[in-house]
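Example record for the data management plan.
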Amino acid sequence: MGRFEDRKNAATGHPTLRLICLSLIVWLGGAAGAAGQDNTTAEVWPEIDAWLLLAPAFRLSMFVPISKNLETYYREGSLVLQADYAFGRMKNPQKRRMVDDSRALEMKRFLFRGGYLGGQSLDDRGEAYKERAALFEFHVRTPLKGRFLMSGRLRSDLRWLGDNHEFSARLRYRLMFEKEFLVGHASIVPYASVEPYYDTRYKTVNRVRLVGGATVAIWRRFALETNITYQYDSKSSVTNLFAIGVILHVFFETPSARGPS
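Corresponding structural encoding:
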């Protein structure tokens, strides 16, 4: 974590960090209480993500998320493969280790991402759910006062569902706010986001997802992320979904991507 030595004033953020953690605990309590209501369910979302930095601007990643319903024990799993290209300088550049950056690098203002998703229901060989999708994303990062970071992500999902490969598309926009705090040698990045989904099957915005969480990076090659998600879906048999996510990030880099410590 020697790449964090040039950053300072970590202690000034501790009251804010405690407030964020308290808010997440209250949110979790509300989620547990609401999980027993009609049209409401709860899930856990464990995930492992691997990141390979090829160069400061190029990166590959692989995500393996799993979802499990706490009431029915129904499970889904996915494999996501992605490639990123980052470019553009910020007006007030920030240097940090984010959830999607393997090192403390100067963050680029823009990022293009393309990828593939293959997912299906588990335990039934995909009889309940099967999906193949092409993913395209465009990110814009904007530094704010107080070293906060605002990022907007526009994402399109081109989906082929079921054994009949029925085609549909989703358009999603995520607005996220985050800030890094340094506690000793640890980097802690709490964040909050909102993301509406437009689905061509229904020709409307049928889903809205709210997420709050934090990523903790103590070791250079690993980071642990945990979050709480609330999802409203007007077209689903379960209108309200609460989920607890736990993600292990593992970072790799090629020799050509390494810079001075």
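Summary line stored alongside the record: Residues 2-254 form a domain with the Porin fold (CATH 2.40.160).
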